[in-house]
Automatic annotation (TrEMBL):
Organism: uncultured Chloroflexota bacterium
Keywords, sorted A to Z: Isomerase
Listed InterPro entries: Epimerase_deHydtase, NAD(P)-bd_dom_sf
Annotated Pfam families: Epimerase (PF01370)
E.C. no: 5.1.3.2
Recorded superkingdom: Bacteria
Domain NAD-dependent epimerase/dehydratase, chain residue ranges per copy: 3-138, 175-285
Entry annotated with the keyword Isomerase: yes
Name listed for the protein in its UniProt record: UDP-glucose 4-epimerase
GO MF annotation list: UDP-glucose 4-epimerase activity
Keyword Signal attached: no
Enzyme class: isomerase
SUPFAM superfamilies named among the record's database cross-references: NAD(P)-binding Rossmann-fold domains
Length: 377
């Protein structure tokens, strides 16, 4: 295949590009190389020599057109992600940028005839809190529930767990299926759901086989250390390697599933090559639930460093308490997570320490989020 990879100089994109090349595909990258992900507007050293590169943004029709010429498939991984209240930018890049791809294909019959497959990166953030269970058998709503976001008053009271609206019992988190109703409640998740609705519906309407990949929290090397707003692995490692302890939000009991970036790259390539994925969304996760505190300890063991996380009682407005993705649908196609989280942590630490300018950026990110009302408490 001739594959256009948007965001191909980024974290997940770069590993996916490597795997595509290993499998004999021709690759072209479209990336805008903007901060805070990239320190300077230059191509990272990990982008393979000989891969065609276009500097441009997915909100620019001319960049899309230049990227699409001669391509027969698209891996659309470019996205905007942080925790800041720059709400319009999320939709401008993630939703409108994706809509622009389909708009250009529908408008140009020669381009449309070329494209045989589109894979779009979305996120488990589309679920919001996801699937829970009320354990109170006398409750009129006993059983499966999909709670909304926790209120500011609840978070300020340090009452962290989602509650049943009928009996006020703390709900028990379950793994979330692709068929469960999406209920995103932060700007990133809402923009990603909008992106999914665009790509899957327009793809089916106009005959462009499309797959949406709902990534869990992806970890490994090439994850930007200059973007301090998200990513437990990079923040924990930055602090640990500079003699400081991780700062954990809420009480650290939040359940997450983490997945190594190499496994995500394999899932992307499977979706691209396998027509059984057409017009569907797939969860891409690690298949194991860890609390944030457990994950901090895992990172410490991987680096052979002692970990005693700080728990100042802060919280991020819009965070999900627990989110766990069921990956049985992707497993049924032969995919399985192969790489350990310890391996991902060690690889990230080794890579980061080799990069010029590596330092601890975590205080800057937390200060900015606090100033803009994202981090509270």
């Amino acid at each position: 295949m001739n594959v256009l990879v948007t965001g191909g100089a980024g974290f997940i994109g770069s590993h996916t590009v490597n795997l595509l090349l290993e499998r004999g595909h021709r690759v072209r990258i479209l990336d805008n190389l903007l901060s805070p992900v990239h320190r300077e507007r230059t191509w990272p050293a990990y982008v393979p020599e000989g891969v065609e590169r276009i500097l441009g943004s997915v909100d620019d029709p001319q960049a899309w057109k230049a990227g699409l010429v001669g391509m027969d498939s698209v891996l659309h991984l470019a996205a905007y992600q942080d925790y800041l209240p720059t709400f319009s930018r999320f939709f401008h890049t993630n939703a409108a940028g994706t809509a622009l791809l389909y708009e250009l294909l529908v408008a140009d019959d020669s381009l449309a005839k070329q494209i045989k497959k589109i894979v779009v990166a979305t996120s488990q953030a589309v679920y919001g809190e996801g699937r829970y269970h009320c354990t109170n058998e006398s409750c009129p709503q006993h059983g499966v529930q999909f709670p909304g976001q926790r209120s500011l008053a609840q978070l300020e009271a340090h009452d962290w767990e989602p509650k049943c609206t009928a009996c006020d019992t703390a709900l028990v988190p379950q793994t979330t299926l692709e068929t469960d109703p999406p209920r995103p409640h932060n700007q990133y998740g809402i923009s990603k759901l909008a992106q999914e609705l665009v790509c899957l519906n327009l793809g089916e309407r106009y005959g462009f086989p499309t797959t949406a990949m709902r990534y869990s929290i992806t970890q490994g090397p090439h994850q930007s250390f200059t973007n301090p707003y998200s990513g437990a692995l990079r923040i924990f490692i930055q602090r640990l390697l500079h003699g400081r302890q991780p700062v954990v939000y809420e009480d650290g009991g939040q359940l997450r599933d983490y997945v190594a970036v190499w496994d995500v790259a394999r899932a992307n390539v499977l979706a691209l090559e396998d027509s059984r994925t057409d017009f569907q969304a797939f969860n891409v996760g690690g298949g194991k639930a860890l609390t944030v505190l457990e994950y901090a300890q895992l990172v410490g063991r991987a680096l052979n460093l002692p970990v005693q996380p700080a728990l100042p009682g802060r919280f991020r407005l819009g965070d999900t308490r627990h989110i766990l993705s069921d990956i049985s649908k992707l497993r049924a196609l032969g995919w399985e997570p192969r790489h350990s989280l310890e391996e991902a942590a060690q690889a990230y630490a080794a890579w980061a320490q080799q990069q010029p300018g590596f330092r601890d950026y975590s205080d800057e990110g937390m200060a900015t989020m606090a100033q803009q009302g994202v981090v509270r408490g």
